[in-house]
Amino acid sequence: GNWTRVTGTHYLTCANAPQPAQPTGGLIVARITTLVGNITGVFPFDTRRPLPGLLLAKGFPGADFGAQFNAAVDACAEFRTQPASSNGRGACTILIPPGTYSVSTEMALDNNQIIVWGYGATIQTSGAISGLHISGIGFGGPSAVYGLKIDHRANATAIAGIRIRNTQNILVKHVMVHAGNGTSATYAGVLLEQSDPANGATGPILTNIENLGVGGVTGADVQYGVLIRGASNGTNILGGELANCVICVGLENQSGASNDPPNATTIHNVAFEGYTTAVRVNAAATGNLAGLRL
Fold first, then answer.
1. Per-residue DSSP letters for 13-51?
2. What digits encode the pLDDT tens for the residues 68-85?
3. What is the pLDDT of residues 32-49, one digit of tens each?
């Protein structure tokens, strides 16, 4: 398309899917995506101020909010791969605005260098899913989740609050998982495990969990606050509160795996409340547990 001046400004617009050439004497400062007249993403292109892309998850198409979030992750992945000549950026932020969202499609964070900003947002799940599944993220750059609340109180079949598999350098901070509501849950607030039980290289490495809140309503509402399985190495649990747990932190071998239990786990300044067991190491696990720090 052609460049058109916005009346009364120095700005030009061009409705074109591929990035057009720079206008004569001008500079492309942003790419904006829209859906049914609503802005769904803003990607700054000013190389003098390298800001990350910003996407509003609820603006994307999908049968439910989980599908909308996954479409936003795909858009972030596309943005990250833009060549330098197109002013691509190495990171992308997905904003989940404050509110309550019903999710039956599992939310999947499966790309490097994506920040999920969810302060004030509550994810209410249904079905055999986790509230957020983080997987397949390598050393190409860390990803992080901030401020999200997972509400499993009406979902007795949930897999986990947050499930982390086959990742490196993940940060989960200020996240709350609310479970139980008087009916004992059998899952974990946060579950770390190998994606392939037979392959120790598929476990999460270097996971930081900061100021996590996991709790139910009464005692033993939550089976595990945090469950660390198999080759889930270098996990740091710092601060936060794990409440109404049968086991607040569990370390064990993974079913079907021949690898050692988790190594290099740090648990520091975590409050335990209304629990049966604060920290349990599965005595039946094969191999040696190394580097547990409390």
1. E---SSPPPPPTT----EEEEEETTEEEEEEE--TTS-P
2. 999 989 888 777 666 544
3. 878 877 777 776 654 333
